[in-house]
Each structure stands twice: as C-alpha cells, then as structure tokens.
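hi! just following up on the protien thing from before. the input was this:
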Amino acid sequence: MERELKENSQNFVDFSQIVKNAYEKGINDAEITIEKLIEDLKVDLRQLVI
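and the predicted 3d structure came back as:
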C-alpha cells in the first residue's frame, strides 16, 4: 500500500514537471507552434508510466 502511494506521488511529480516544461517551452520559444507543443507534450506524457 505504501509503495503504491509512493508511485502515485512520483507520477504526480513527473506529470507536473512535464506540464511545467511544456509551459516554459511555450512561453520562451517564440517560434514553436501549438501543434508542435502538443506533439511534444503527447510524447512526454506517453513516456510517463502510470
């Protein structure tokens, strides 16, 4: 039970970091398109193991 809670907590941290990175990329990269940003976000989220 404790292990499951730890894994869920880590997944939440990973998810938060992925979203934060996507936000930062969208703010700082003037040439990125919405489509490219969404594609990158999809790739990162697929790598996240739930």
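The mean pLDDT is 84.
Helices lie at 2-28, 34-47.
cheers
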